[in-house]
Amino acid sequence: MSSFKKNLEDAMEEEQGDVPAQDDSVKKAKKKKSKKSKSSKKIEFSFKSFITGLGFCFFLSGCLAVWTLFNADTTIQKLQSTLPSKTTIVETSSSPYPDETTITMTGEPIEVDPLVAKKPVDVDPSTESMMEKEEEEEEVVELAPDEKPHRKNAVPFSKKTDKPLLSFVIYDLGLSQIKTANIIENFSPEISLAFSPYAKNLETQTMTAQEDGHEIWLTLPLETKEYPLNDPGPSSLLINASTKKNKARLAKVLNATNNQVGYISQPDHVFKPEDASVNPALRDIFVKGYAIIDSNISMRSFVGGVADRGDYPYAQNMLWLDDTITPISFNQKIRRISEMGKSKKDIIVMLRPYPASLKAVQKFLNSQAADQFEMAPVSAQLINK
Predict the structure, then answer these.
(1) What residue spans of the chain are helical by DSSP H?
(2) What pLDDT does 275 receive?
(3) Contacts of 75 (CB under 8 A, 6+ apart)
(4) I need a surface site. Which of 6, 202, 263, 349 has the fewest CB within 10 A?
(5) For the chain, which ranges sit under pLDDT 50?
(6) Phi/psi at 89 (nearest 5 deg)?
(7) Confidence (pLDDT) at 39
């Protein structure tokens, strides 16, 4: 009995000992909650202060902008009144390109460099246009029909069958003289050759090709879609260049050699029909008796309108054999040529002197598919010839 009583007393003491511990944990929890609430109040107060300060900054900036708007002219006038200035009078002759220019000031005279004084001043567009027309008319020299290069330098051709014509043009030759010599030797005379005006020994190379029976053309450098990243060279004709500059550039191309039938544009040029209509440099090519072939197949010939109005010789490429250099692409292009032959269409096909392109042409010429065409130099397909 005594042991039971003792155990009971011990149990009661343990229960009494746990209660304070529980009270301590509760107190600790309450302290934590009170701390959190105080910190949240502090954070809330700091955020509101930030928003208030930001709004004040915006208000101040707006006031400053309004003040500046209404007082800008006054401020500028005050600043100008504090700066030193002189009045300058420029006297020019009535000619748009004066020989002498006198500059006087409300002070000591200024000596003008003669080179600077002879620089042209702004000219009225109508006056400049009239001057260009007069200059152009002075340069025009009409050639006899048989003396025009597109006839004089063309390989003679007469159609012998009712088959459609097929003309291959190997483009941009002459830069590699060894490769060009191999092409001249290994391809039949019906294949026309277009040389770069930048090629070295151009006269010798073109004479060799002409003696071998090939028809000679030159490539015509024109501004490209990616110009100036893709720059066709120093003799390129540019859309926004002055007539004088384009004519100077064209003169270098025209004087590169004299045994070409005409000129073939590059495939990625940006010239449009309206550009050819207003660019005298392009018309000069026709006036001098040369033909122009537009190698671009993505749009209508950029010289067609000018050529038809002036009865000048021109043509347009129909297919680039190697715009993609893969066996599948070559096979697709050859198949397309065959299909066009079945529909009795005359075709002009151009290619670059890549080994794969040359091999594909040789393979086609030795196949039965070539029998449905009559091979011809490209001048045979000129319009207005």
Answers:
(1) 2-82, 114-117, 125-139, 149-152, 177-186, 202-211, 243-254, 273-278, 280-287, 304-310, 327-342, 355-365
(2) 84
(3) none
(4) 6
(5) 18-22, 26, 33, 36-44, 87-132, 134-138
(6) -115, 125
(7) 46
Residue 330's CB is within 10 A of a number of other CB atoms, namely 21
H/E element holding 325?
none
d(CA 213, CA 245): 36
299 Cβ contact partners less than 8 Å away, ≥ 6 residues apart: 272
Is the distance from CB of 180 to CB of 362 less than 8 angstroms? no
- Token digits for 203? 């006269």
pLDDT of residue 20: 46
Instruction: Say what the pTM is.
Output: 0.65
57, burial (CB in 10 Å: exposed 0-12, middle 13-18, buried 19+): exposed
Take residue 311 and report the two structure tokens written for it: 């009865």
For the chain, the domains span: 145-381
How high is the pLDDT of residue 112?
A: 41
| Residue ranges in 212-265 assigned as alpha helix (H) | 243-254
- What the block records as the tokens of 35 is 């701390």
Condensed to tens digits (0 to 9), the pLDDT of residues 121-160 reads: 444 444 444 444 544 444 556 788 888 999 999 999 999 9
Q: What is the reported pLDDT for 107?
A: 43
Q: Are 193 and 212 in contact (CB under 8 A)?
A: no
DSSP codes, 89-101 = EEEE-SSSS-S-E
